[in-house]
């Protein structure tokens, strides 16, 4: 987030997150259910401990939920984290947990450098003016991108409206560019490997010598064959 709007926006995010209902996923009032399994549950505890050790601050959450119904599933509090150093690995790690890291930047260029400094590039979102949006689409290294989307910045493609694909470690292309695997129908994959001999290697010379001597032997054998084939014919003709 840019510094001029940071405090206000963080405050609004905290207020909204504090009002989220955690509970039974079959209840319509519930916004956050349990995480998928015990492994994810333990990951949450390990990640929040790692964030705490690195100096990050928990704006909300940071703990697992226990007691009563929460003992029947793997429930974790929705967690907003601030002040985590940008060099920390969790800025570049996909946690798949209700943990969101928030960082303050001086300008959009700094934000873009941080956003692109990852091995992934599936989805990316942005909120700003129309001019800033054009800049974002040109600079961001991601396959499915959004700007000013009220439902959420990076929630995946809209089925039936958008192709879905990523860049870098998230994929090479989409599956719906003009149709299912359309572009690939006009392409052939080819792996090319050229092995060049070392400059001081005599391999190339040996090949040439072998090839030329082989040709010479073949030519000589042909001449011998012709001579032996013609001589008997001439002798027989003289006798007649």
Description:
There is one protein chain. This protein is an alpha/beta fold and 240 residues long. The protein folds into 2 domains: 3-186, 3-Layer(aba) Sandwich (Aldehyde Dehydrogenase, Chain A, domain 2), CATH 3.40.309.10; 205-240. 37% of the residues lie in helices and 10% in strands. The protein has 5 helices and 7 strands; from the N terminus they run ααβββαββαββα. It has helices at residues 3-18, 38-53, 108-116, 130-139, 203-239; strands at residues 57-60, 79-82, 99-102, 120-121, 123-126, 144-147, 167-168. The strands form 3 sheets. It has a 3-stranded mixed beta sheet, sandwiched between helices. Strands 4-7 form a two-stranded antiparallel sheet. Strand 5 (123-126), helix 4 (130-139) and strand 6 form a beta-alpha-beta unit. The longest helix has 37 residues, at 203-239. It is globular, with a radius of gyration of 35 Å. The protein starts with a helix and ends with a helix. The model is unreliable at 205-213 and 227-240 (pLDDT under 50).
């Amino acid at each position: 987030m840019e510094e001029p709007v940071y405090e206000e926006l963080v405050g609004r995010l905290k207020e909204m997150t504090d009002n989220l209902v955690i509970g039974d996923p079959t209840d319509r009032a519930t916004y956050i259910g349990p995480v998928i399994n015990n492994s994810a549950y333990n990951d949450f505890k390990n990640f929040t401990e790692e964030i705490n050790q690195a100096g990050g601050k928990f704006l909300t959450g940071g703990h697992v939920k226990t007691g009563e119904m929460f003992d029947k599933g793997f429930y974790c509090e929705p967690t907003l984290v601030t002040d985590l150093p940008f060099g920390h690995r969790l800025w570049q790690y996909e946690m798949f947990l209700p943990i969101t890291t928030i960082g303050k930047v001086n300008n959009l260029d700094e934000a873009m450098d941080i956003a692109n400094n990852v091995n992934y590039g599936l989805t990316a979102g942005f909120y700003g003016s129309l001019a800033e949006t054009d800049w974002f689409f040109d600079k961001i290294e991601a396959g499915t991108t959004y700007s000013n989307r009220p439902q959420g910045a990076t929630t995946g493609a809209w089925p039936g409206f958008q192709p879905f694909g990523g860049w870098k470690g998230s994929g090479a292309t989409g599956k719906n560019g003009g149709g299912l695997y359309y572009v690939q129908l006009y392409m052939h994959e080819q792996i090319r490997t050229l092995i060049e001999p070392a400059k001081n290697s005599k391999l190339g010379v040996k090949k040439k010598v072998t090839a030329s001597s082989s040709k010479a032997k073949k030519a000589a054998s042909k001449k011998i064959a012709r001579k032996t084939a013609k001589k008997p014919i001439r002798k027989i003709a003289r006798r007649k």
